[in-house]
Amino acid sequence: MLPILTVSGAPGLLYLNGRFCGETGAAAMPLTRDGVQYLELRPFDPDRRGAVLRLRMEDGQLVEGASGDVFCVQWPSGWIALEIKEGEAEAVFADETEPELLSQLDMPGGRYLLVKEGGAVSFGRDAEEAVFLPARGITDATLRPLPYAGLCAVEGVSGDGKFAAVLRAQDAPEIIKATSGPSARLDGQGVLHAVEAADDLVGHASISVWAPDAQGNYTQRSREIAWKDGGPHWPQSPAETARAWLEALLFGARDEAIGYFSQANTAGEAARAAGSFDAVVDLPPDGSDGVQLGLLSMRGDNLAAVRKFVFTLSLRPGAQGPWKIDAAKEDPCD
After folding, report:
1. In the chain, which ranges are continuous DSSP H helix?
2. What's the pTM?
3. Mind listing the pLDDT tens digit for each residue in 9-33?
4. Strand, helix or coil at 78?
5. What Cα–Cα distance (Å) separates residue 81 from each residue in 28, 252, 300?
6. Contact between 62 and 79 (Cβ < 8 Å)
7. Dist CA 119 CA 47 (whole Å)
8. Can you tell me the distance from the alpha carbon of 51 to that of 64, in angstroms, rounded to the nearest whole number?
9. DSSP code of 285?
10. What would you report as the CA-atom Rg of the chain, rounded to the nearest whole angstrom?
11. What gap in Å lies between CA 214 and CA 93, rounded to an integer?
């Protein structure tokens, strides 16, 4: 079976190795299993840049991602989904508010500003060197110095609840450590305490502490598993039980993961088969029965690969929901 490429994103005409194949979002293009191929996008909008992407295939798999401003997902059964980003940024008119100064702090390197503009918050002495804080929906935020040379703290309210970060304010600004969640704070010694939600099915959270060494380098000193809402929301269906098991593995809740299985030794074998992965994703419908989920792993800056995992479950009510996993294994696809 030949791998199939679909393309979404920037609207335009698609050419594979010089041959016209259709429009973005509509064309499904067969690729050779090995070798280098070239995909060309010719945008409908004459004011936007086109793109020529180099795709290298080995044994039906895309390797090394793709050149250009794109993101690729290698799905099971040979499907490669490629998203091409717009060649030029759209003009934004929805938010034309003036920059808002949230806080400022005089440090040995100069006066550092915390500025909100267009929904984003940046930190630095001027716009050219500013770094953006990795939190969404920051509203209130304040700066204060920390008892370490060149370090300062920012704390505030974000869309996730609370936000806190340790910043380097010595020459070029740098984000040393940042976190957001139901709770985030820095004490007077610069120790960062945070409750971070996993945003998973069961409702995991972690209570973590990061502390600096004598040089101001931050490392995690402790981590405890907790619940975002004070208690778990146990899965109630076979599909939810399968997802909860994979998310427990991803979160590091090993004892909980074993509890989703009818037999502990089977849980260990399945966990070894799952191995390392970065996210749990739904698989495109293929007409088959049963429970199946995808394990997504990043293979590069713009390339992700998905493995198919299939499950057998039975109704056995217990402390972690009414269903138990009897078997879970990877389903290798041609």
Report:
1. 238-251, 254-259, 264-274
2. 0.76
3. 889 999 998 889 999 988 889 998 8
4. helix
5. 10, 30, 15
6. no
7. 27
8. 18
9. P
10. 24
11. 47
